[in-house]
Amino acid sequence: HAARDEGSVIAWFDNTVSSRLADRLRLAGRIHSAIDAEFELYFQPICHASDGTPAALEALLRWPQPDGSFIPPGEFIQLCEDTGLILALGRWVIREAARAQRQLVDAGWDLPIAVNVSAVQFFNSDLVAEFQRASQEFGLARGALHVELTESSLMRKPGQAKQTMQRMHEQGIHISLDDFGTGYSNMSYLQHLPLDILKIDRSFVADVETNPRNASICRALLSLGHSMGLTVIAEGVETPGQHEWLAAHGCDQVQGYLLGRPAPLVEVIGRLELAAV
Ligand code: C2E
Ligand code: MG
Ligand code: MG
Ligand code: MG
Questions:
Q1: Which residues belong to any copy of the EAL domain (predicted)?
Q2: Which of 20, 94, 151, 239 gets the most CB atoms within 10 Å of its CB?
Q3: Residues 185, 158: contact at Cβ < 8 Å?
Q4: Is the pLDDT of residue 17 over 80?
């Protein structure tokens, strides 16, 4: 009697678990195709400050609307984090970035692509495996993908962050610290992280030539980054004056509307070809 009860409980359990699993897989499939249908990846060049030649591309999510406008990532990333959708979306971004890097190489441009990863994604998915899988699928070289993390996400769980970063480093994934200067980093902690690149937030770059306070901050961040042996990138470079100031102060790379707005990959490749002739 007891055994039959147990059996039926197990049968019931098996049934619901497997049908729930099937539901979830169907849902996952729908989410994937929905993501594929709704979102697009744009790419923005990151250039050598000295001569403006391209050093890398950054992948940036776009959510186009029927009227031709875009909902900016600033407005939907948070929502995706709150609902957990960021995990599927983030996985899609990694795979699309890998596909794009393959296309770039095939077009004769061997530039790495930097992928933004949000805090929720960083701590709740097996990023190393996702990068590995995508790189393998598209036959990418070691170092073909970079990852961009923010201070605030690293500071949430410093121990786990360091471990994940070390595993990424072993896979040849370069790590950038994004929006640098806007968070509250513990400098002695930062020093012990396997970082490669520091990205100065665009709020400091905006009026670097005219605002002595921002000029001091940029000088300090450049010197900090270089003393840690990092490549320093300035974000949000919009004018030749900003570019010149940054190059003169030893900034390694620049990114911003001056060098190129984010655009679909084919358009970026077209611009690279035009600039190269
Ligand atoms: P971010 O990673 O710091 O990306 C740089 C942002 O600055 C992008 O905004 C870019 O379009 C913008 N930008 C570039 N040059 C200039 C310039 O000269 N002037 C100005 N005013 N802005 C410039 P976007 O594309 O709206 O993205 C905003 C943020 O959303 C990103 O900041 C990043 O934190 C997040 N994001 C974008 N794509 C993804 C993604 O695939 N995954 C995740 N988790 N976050 C993403
Ligand atoms: Mg699409
Ligand atoms: Mg970024
Ligand atoms: Mg940034």
A1: 24-276
A2: 94
A3: no
A4: no
